[in-house]
Amino acid sequence: MSRRRRAREVVMQLLYRDDLNGVGVGDGSSDQQFLSRRLNRNAGLISFADTILQGVRQNRESIDEKLESTTVNWSLARMAVTDRNVMRIAAWEILFTETPPRVAINEAIELSKRYGDENSSRFVNGVLDKLMQEAHTES
């Protein structure tokens, strides 16, 4: 597993916790401790992961709106928690960063294969591919 994928995985775990307990339930220091422990105190990876975490949290409402408008007959509440959070990370990268969209989508697919069910990777790929196309059309 790539180091950056590992960072995304750890962020997904924090976002999963947010979903179950309320957005941003951890205080900054507990989030930092979690990132530090899980990423072997690698300052570069911790910074990368924290940027994703804060970016998704700060833009969650607009990310969720984009994801919901991209899906047909699927609300975010109906999606598996892991799928939803994997897609939030990728959507943030597609919409708000310079990460090549295909990289963000491929990383999301790999995480969904690991944490989702047998259909997760296809579902995540379809939603994010459509999001990427719509984002490209808007810009």
Structure overview:
This protein is an all-alpha fold and 139 residues long. It has one domain (3-138): NusB-like (N-utilizing Substance Protein B Homolog, Chain A). The protein is built from 7 helices and no strands. The protein has helices spanning 3-21, 28-38, 43-58, 60-70, 81-96, 101-115, 120-138. Helix 1 packs across helix 5 (81-96), helix 3 packs across helix 5 (81-96) and helix 5 runs parallel beside helix 7 (120-138). It is globular, with a radius of gyration of 14 Å. It starts with a helix and ends with a helix.
> Structural class, judged by helices and strands?
mainly alpha
CATH architecture: Orthogonal Bundle
Number of domains: 1
Number of helices in the DSSP assignment? 7
Outline the secondary-structure elements.
Blueprint: H1 3-21, H2 28-38, H3 43-58, H4 60-70, H5 81-96, H6 101-115, H7 120-138
What tags apply to this protein structure?
139 residues, mainly alpha, N-utilizing Substance Protein B Homolog, Chain A, 7 helices
Short structural summary:
This protein has 139 residues and is mainly alpha-helical.
